[in-house]
Amino acid sequence: MFESEFERGLHALRQQKLEQIVALGQQAYPNSYRTSHTIPAIWDQYGEATAEALETPRVEVSIAGRLMTIRGQGKAGFAHLQGGGKRLQVYVRQDAVGEAGFALYKLLDAGDHIGVTGYLFRTRTGELSVHVDTITFLTKAMLALPEKYHGLADVELRYRQRYVDLFMNTELETGETAEPHSEHDKHETGHVGASDLIAQPEPEAIRVRDVFVKRAQVLRALRRFFDERGYLEVETPMMQPVAGGAAAKPFTTHHNALDLDLFLRIAPELYLKRLVVGGLDRVYEINRNFRNEGTSTQHNPEFTMLEFYQAYANYSDLMDLTEELVRFVALEVNGTTKTRFNGVEIDLAKWQRYSMREAIINWWPDTNEQPVPADFSDLSKFAAKLTRLSTYWCNKYSGFLDHGGPLLMDKSNEPAFIARANVMKCEKELWEAGQNTTLSEVDKNNVLGTAITTVFESLAESHLIQPTIIYDFPLAVSPLSKQKPDDPDWVERFEFYIGGFELGNAFSELNDAGEQRRRFEQQLGERARGDEEAHAMDEDYIRALSYGLPPTAGEGIGIDRLTMVLTGARSIRDVILFPLLRPQTR
After folding, report:
1. Which end of the chain has fewer beta carbons closer than 10 Å to its terminal beta carbon, N or C?
2. CA distances for 385 relative to 53, 364, 451, 469, angstroms
3. In the chain, how many domains are there?
4. What percentage of the chain reaches a pLDDT higher than 70?
5. Which stretches of the chain drop beneath a pLDDT of 70?
6. Domain hosting residue 544, numbered range
């Protein structure tokens, strides 16, 4: 428990103070305290009241909270009580509270909880305060409050000790004012370009408590949006015999009584679509998901998602609904559709749409060698485009890959370096697949579709700062989506992006049971080749589809990421109360 000998000694000193407080007739840990107002309610009701208005008649109050500051001079003292995220000054005089009351006051420390009764007044400086008549001791803080959080190590301490972080109400790091980049940067780096950014004044600081208050408002707004549109909120299993509904590695657990291995939910999708089969035409769930993957500023193994499904709709309907939903939530939470993220002003009412192929062409670095639509349908043509792109990069940078190919050794922009390396890896895999005579056309199309998706993520994704819908995905990366009738290698799927990362994923649901079985079998083949995230076979889901799933569209939206955008928090850990961390070492 103790992190230093000093802290151990401080704890012992405060234990002695607690014993002295008990000797004054106070309870060490009383059961309750009756208040007349919360501190926020006092500010709401009397924050604008003049000194004269508070005098006749006097406003008697009883409040409780945590002492955040305490000071005394002679036989009087001032302190600040905090409750409900607000602070209120209290004024304590010995002749008002009595000798025993003032002796108690002198034994108090910052962090202690107390209750006071008295009347409201304004000090000579005009500060709204409580003139205290009685003090009741409620809880002793046995550890000292931190003076201030600063530096990287203390950022991690904030996550580990969120209980301290919340009552200290720390400011978040929300990013510096963004400066425009050159058009060269727009195409050549992982950063956004001049057309994506407008330099803005320094934003107001946001505090940790505000983030979690807004997160609660986000959830309320989402529920209101869907409830008003006739959706039914439901709950589906968190322990599942088949990990389905997403491409992710699950956590495993075991049910002792049934001697049954189970998986923690990676997505509720297949259960929600079973409900649509059952006649619940519009359903939604705000759910916790668990994926056994790494952590980053955008990923936490345990996270919250909204998933919703609508019968007799397709992905085009959900595009319109998504734009409406995000605008609605922004207005409910912030009162405006404009927000700031990473120093950039984003307007959540202004959306743009690109097909995945259009996005790749738009952000292709070599503007003289951009792909044409036909290149995305032919493995050798797309591989040739990537080869010419590699040559273009090689002429701009020096260096070689370990296997002898060109590599960009300029690592000053780490995301861009990784993106270029990923594209060049795709180039190698495409050529190898094209030369492999044992691969079927289906397998080659899978390699092509996967490569196209990786190239999109590498070249375009970081530029999607303003709200953007990317639609029409390769079949290879969409085992649960319905194919486009006129282009069967592509599916009716979209993702939406804000701030340079994905927030939601939606598609027209595949409802052909036979085709779904074939897709699952292809995924089993990928799993046999070592892909741990490939989808497993789910016989019961296929049986459910066999009873008839109507034309349906569904979508999943990351609540944590949406909260990041609406609050300006740059890390997912800033919007999760208790994020997963490595065990602390001493």
Report:
1. C
2. 77, 10, 12, 25
3. 2
4. 90
5. 148-153, 173-204, 397-414, 586
6. 150-185+197-358+493-581
